[in-house]
Each structure stands twice: as C-alpha cells, then as structure tokens.
C-alpha cells in the first residue's frame, strides 16, 4: 500500500470523524479532545479497517432541499426591532452632540490657535491635501479614542497575546511605551483554528521548508516564482475546496481587488451585497463594470434586482449585459451572519448569473470538514462559479486563493495582475498553508485527527460563548456556530469605555463604530478560537458580565431572567 493510500485510509477509518453528531454538528458524548486519539498510529496498526457506508459509497452531489429554501424565504424579525426606542434616540443624540462640539472646537481653535490648522488651509496657491470637514471625524472623534485601536503586540497572537503597554499625555496625539508587557486573553484575532503558533507540527514543517527551499523566489510566478511547493499547494487547495483548480495570491486583499477586474469589465454587471468587504468594493470599482447593491442577505431583494437588470439591460442602449456576477460573502465578519447560499443557488439556477463567494472568514471555520459555507449547507462547490478565500484566518498564514474550473484559473494566471505582476507567495507562508490544510484534511499521518479536533473545539467554543452572552441578557448578532460574535453597544461613549474596561481586566477585544458600521449599531466583536479553553471563556464571560452591569448593556436582561430562575 502506497503512502498516499495509507493516509487516505487513516482518514476514512477514523471512528472519531464518523461519530454521531447533534443538529448543530457537535460530537455527541464526551469531550472530543479526550475521546479522540492523538495520532493515527493506533488506527493504522489495526489488522482490519471497516469503512463506513458513507465513506465507501461513490460521491453524491449534494442538493439543496425545498424545505431549506422555503424556510430561508421567510422574513425573520430584525434584532434591532426589540431595541428600546430610548436607546436608539439617545444614540442618535449622542452622535449629534459629538459632531456639534467638534465643529465648535474647530471654530474656536481657528481663532485662538490658527497655527495648528495651517495644514487645513490653502498655502502658496495649493489647496489642502485634506480639508477640515473631511478630517473632522478623524481629528475630533476617532482621535480621542485612538488608544482603543492599533495596540502593539509582541510574540504570537494565539489564545493569549503579549501587549506592549503604552500611555498618552496629550489626549492620544502621541503615545509613549512604558516598557511593560501585559499578557492578555486574545478575543480580537482571527485565529479560528489556533494555527497561529511558534511551535508544533506546522512550525516544524515551515522550518523544514525554509531549509530546503529558502525564503522566497523574489519573482512573480510568470517569471521565476512558480515553484514545486507553490504548484503542490495550489493542487491541495483545489482538492480541499472540491474544485478543478486553484490560484494562490500572496495578499488577501489583492485576491479580490485584482482578480475581480480580470473577470468583468465595461458592459458587465456586478450585483453586490450592501455589507460586502472593502476589497470586494475596490475590485468592483476597478473593473469598470456597472454596480448594483441589494439589501444585506436578502434573497428577495436580490431577485428583484436580477429581474430588473435582466429585463432592462444596459443603461441607455438596453442591450443585454455581457455578464452578470453576484458577489457575496460566506461569513460576514462584522455581523457574524452566514450568507443564504441555498437561496442564492436556486436563483443562480433560475436566472443563470455567475456567483462569486468570498470565504475569507468561513473557510476552515464552518462545516463539519472545515470546507466553508458550501460544506456548512451541504452544497456542491461546483454550484459556485468562483470561490475565494484567505489563509490569514483559519490557517494562521497570509495571502488568499481563487478556486474554480480549470478554464477559469488558467485564464486568471495569464490576465490577473495578482498573478502576472505580484510576487509569488513566500516559502514559509506556503509551508504553513500546506501543513495546516493537510492537518484539517486528515492527510498528515502523524496528526490525522488533530484537524478534526480543532474544528469541533471551535464549534463548541463558539456556540457556548454566544449562548452564555444571550443568557446574560446581552444583545448579540450573528448565526449559531459563527466564530465571530458581535455584541451591540449602541452609545458612542460606551464603545471606548467597553474596550478600556476589558483591557483593565486583561482581555483584548475589538470595538467597531461608524463609519465601519451603521451609526446606531456600534459593537464589540469577539473572535473565538479553538485555542481558547473553557476556563478562558468562563473568565472572559464573568468579566464581560461585570462590564455589562457597569455600562448597562444587558438590554434583554428582563427577558432571560425568568428562564434562569426556572433552570435553577
């Protein structure tokens, strides 16, 4: 039996992977880390291996059931509908007061200290690079809470991270390092599967690859950057995603921004979700194609846009569009919501558009096998024309990929600026991607089960953390099982206050406000990882509960209190 056959047999014969699971996809009966063996050696040593009927049967193309579609088409009440009107009104008034005070301070400042505003006025016939009105938000609002952002760290951003302590004596205009390092619980990094490590099997593979291949090819892939390691990793990505071929790009943002313009141009139409990532927006604008936006995650509005666009055609001429491409994300990182892929697939079959799915946050983090949103909904990946993802979240690396048909990828290799002009991915990053992906797929003989353990641990942690927050009375967003859990803060004063209170308790979090979110939905975004222990999560929940009481953030406390009493 060959080496490859042994690895496949070890993966398929794993009783742990075939264990019964509940409706949420979690292993039934016990802790997966305790029940599963640490390696596949014991499985390989067995004289006989019984393959499950599912593994031994030929591949079956998954279909989207009619019940799933009908359930998704039902209008779900918005979480914001239950927000007290008083909270919404005071949030708007708070922002209004901040803006009025900002303008007043600018007016007085220009009279009292005009030298501080020189860069905002015309000088020697040159217009200012940035006007005072355009920079008002940055100078007067963001500047006062800048200590909550861009906090410098040192070391590995794992389950815990070392934070370089800093102070400001001029209202966050400048910072000084104190020389102290604080070890804090990390709920801010996208280290979903915990592969951001400086030791372990992945780190060992990276070191071996650097000794064998060096650091980088120092060239684009069309010149001297197409290495054996790059080709092997691209083939692995294609197998992992269930597509014919894949293209690896050395920068995640550029994977969208530089490949979308290669797919569409003038005379084409892009229909984009209103909450798509900035890289998708940049790529759409660079393409020169017409852009239309549909309401977030609303299949009915998407169909309305499709019917109107197809019937009317291009503006003025009313000629048919050359191509129509719908762009969505698998997991929206600011909302923690999954895209309604089954509904969109049905629309694709009906109207014949191309579908582009950004799986930057969903690949590796969703699905029983970690294959992303298609795996989560049991949708055949071939139903999606372009699958995009990044390696910066679940794989602990950098860069991104485009997966699809061989014809599509061959075309991008010759026409995409990311492939023709950008440098090829460096050797250490390729080795990290390859080793972590092999572990998730169960192809690493020494650690064939560790990848599945990480997937289950992430699912357990995510659902546990979200459920406990809801039980405490916090207003959270997102779908069950999402590793990104937003908690609504609303008031602009509570946004920096929450971040600073967490830091006092040695917890690192990310707070987000307008213009990154709608003005009334300022939030803190918790990023859960498989590297978090139950003790880590319980400690964080205890501290967050105290902060919630301090800042009066438990808007649903009255609704959940009777349930707690009944449970007790």
Topology, pairings included?
Layout: H1 3-12, H2 32-35, H3 41-44, H4 53-56, H5 66-73, H6 85-112, H7 136-142, E1 153-154, E2 160-167, E3 176-186, H8 201-213, H9 228-241, E4 245-249, H10 252-257, H11 260-263, E5 269-273, H12 278-287, E6 290-294, H13 299-312, E7 324-329, E8 331-332, E9 337-338, H14 341-351, E10 354-358, H15 373-377, E11 386-390, E12 400-404, H16 406-415, H17 417-420, H18 427-441, H19 450-472, E13 484-488, H20 494-504, E14 507-508, E15 510-512, E16 523-527, H21 534-551, H22 557-567
Parallel strand pairs: 3-14, 5-6, 5-7, 7-10, 10-11
Antiparallel strand pairs: 1-2, 2-3, 4-12, 8-9, 11-12, 13-16, 15-16
Helix pairs in contact: 6-7, 8-18, 9-18, 13-14, 18-19, 19-21, 20-21
Structural notes for this entry:
The protein has 568 residues and is an alpha/beta fold. Helices cover 41% and strands 13% of the residues. It has helices at residues 3-12, 32-35, 41-44, 53-56, 66-73, 85-112, 136-142, 201-213, 228-241, 252-257, 260-263, 278-287, 299-312, 341-351, 373-377, 406-415, 417-420, 427-441, 450-472, 494-504, 534-551, 557-567; strands at 153-154, 160-167, 176-186, 245-249, 269-273, 290-294, 324-329, 331-332, 337-338, 354-358, 386-390, 400-404, 484-488, 507-508, 510-512, 523-527. The strands form four sheets. Strands 4-12-11-10-7-5-6 form a seven-stranded mixed sheet, sandwiched between helices. Strands 1-2-3-14 form a four-stranded mixed sheet, covered by helices on one side. A hairpin with a 5-residue loop joins strand 1 and strand 2.
